[in-house]
Structures are given as structure tokens and as C-alpha cells.
UniProtKB/TrEMBL annotation:
Catalysed reactions, as listed in the record: N-acetyl-L-glutamate 5-semialdehyde + phosphate + NADP(+) = N-acetyl-L-glutamyl 5-phosphate + NADPH + H(+)
Organism: Cupriavidus basilensis
NCBIfam families linked: argC_other
Entry similarity comment: Belongs to the NAGSA dehydrogenase family. Type 2 subfamily.
Pathway stated in the Swiss-Prot or TrEMBL entry: Amino-acid biosynthesis; L-arginine biosynthesis; N(2)-acetyl-L-ornithine from L-glutamate: step 3/4
Keywords: Amino-acid biosynthesis, Arginine biosynthesis, Cytoplasm, NADP, Oxidoreductase
Source species taxonomy: Bacteria, Pseudomonadati, Pseudomonadota, Betaproteobacteria, Burkholderiales
GO process terms (BP): L-arginine biosynthetic process
Domain Semialdehyde dehydrogenase NAD-binding: 5-106
Described purpose of this protein according to its UniProt entry: Catalyzes the NADPH-dependent reduction of N-acetyl-5-glutamyl phosphate to yield N-acetyl-L-glutamate 5-semialdehyde.
Cellular localisation: Cytoplasm
Name of this protein: N-acetyl-gamma-glutamyl-phosphate reductase
Amino acid sequence: MSSPVVFIDGDQGTTGLQIHERLRDRTDLRLFTLAAAERKDPRCRAQAINACDIAILCLPDAAAREAVDAIVNPAVRVIDASSAHRTQPDWTYGFPEMTQGQAERIANARRVTNPGCYPTGAIGLLRPLLQAGLIPGDYPVSIHAVSGYSGRGRAGVEEHEGQGAVNAPAYQVYGLALAHKHPPEIQLHAGLAQRPIFVPAYGAFRQGIVLTVPLALRLLPPGVDGAALHACLARHYADAAHVRVVPLDESCALQHLDPQALNATNDMHLSVFPNAEHGHVLLSAVFDNLGKGASGAAVQNLDLMLTRQ
């Protein structure tokens, strides 16, 4: 039996380059990309996507939709790393650890939508707690996250690594109109009844994310405290290979969170920081925006899908 053909459409962007890097030495699959002269040729792209077993789309949203529309071969399976299909009911959400049975659903899916980088952390923290009833569905959730500049794609890399890098900002908060594309994805897959407030930022480091969610205990069900929230997350991710819930004593000893701590891995660390005196709890997620937040997640989903190829 021949090895499955994996086609990366958009292998020159930040996500595509890292996926290619992670797959290029594999012998259990045949990796295919288009030559530079063919990348913008619709006919060449359509031929390539219909000739592969699994296509990984690392494209802008509109181009990703066009690529999917070009598929006429019913055997072709797709992992879409764009945000084009993340809230579509006929696409399987590619977060294997999100809920029981999700890895199996991904393995059997024809269409998988890779989670967004920020939503990976937010959903990873919130969904188990909402499912367990420890956070009400109508809780007024606010999320703050800082990503490395590669989260902006080539524009961010050029700003910080190109000729004008000396003038690049050290830190910038954006999405000030509170209309970022990620809240609908977070709301749907976390199970929130209303849109969360999401405030993102970029720092002057290449990759990595720290995402935090503050909670007021007075707005949670009676008896819910930091220990209960931590225990719920620890149970949910007990068997997860790529998600670690940091023990309470270990997290309470921390003085800061390093967004780059898990760079070049597909891992995510979740922490709970309780303050009983003030009735507050801070939830945090640390992971690589190009690892668990993008290319690492795509390869994890690919490996699940290859078990059913």
C-alpha cells in the first residue's frame, strides 16, 4: 500500500512553513507542495488538491473557501488552518482534547477545521469548567492574551525582523473595537451563552502565547473555589499527552508566566491562580502560537486522520 499524499496549500506562510518543517522528514507519507510559478494558478491548485489524500490549507479565509469549493474528488480529506470554517456545523473542530470522543471524531472526519491560536487556550480553559457547571453559561467572560508577532503572519515577521525592525513596537494591544474574529469561535466551542470580551496583544518576541481569564468567585455557583476549578481541569486532561494542568502548589509558587516557555512544542500548560482573600481566580494558558496554536495542532490532527486513511 502506497503512502498517503499530503498536500500543503500555502506552504510559504508562517503556519505552512512550520507544518512543512515538521513533516518533511517523515517516511510514512508523501509531502507535496506547488512550485512558486503554480501557487497562484487556480488550475494547478485544483489539480493538486484533487490528487491528494489529505490537504492542509494554510491560506487566507477566502482562498481556503475557494480551495474547498474546487474539490470534486470525494476521497479528499481536508485540514483547514484558516478561520473560514471554525463555526461551521458540518466541519469537525480540530481540538482533540476538547471533549471526550473528539480525537475519534477528528480521526474519522472528512473536513477538519484547525482551532485558532487564541481560542485553543480560551476553550481549553473554559469548556471543561462550563461542561461541569462550575462556570455558568452566562458568565461575563473576559479574555486577555499576548502573542508573539508571528501571530500577524508575514507582516508581523517583516516588521520585527526586516529592515525597519529597530522601529518595531515592543508591545501593542489591538482589537480595540472588540470585533475580533475569534469571539464567535470561543463562544461556540466553549459553550458560552454570550460573546466573551476578548483583548489581544502582540509582544516583541517571535512566538508564544500567554492567555488569561479572570473569574470572580461571587459569580460562580456556591462552593466553587480555585481548588474545585483546578480539580476539574486536572480530571479533564488527566490522560492528555499535550495538555498539562500545572499542580496548584507549583502554580502558586510562580511569580510570572513566560509566553515563550513552550515554543517549538505542541504542548499547552494550564494554570489556576486563586486568591481566596479577594474572591478572585485567574486561569492561564501558555503555549506556542505556531505549535499547539497552529502547525503543531494541524500535524496532531493529521496523525489522527492518518489512522483512518
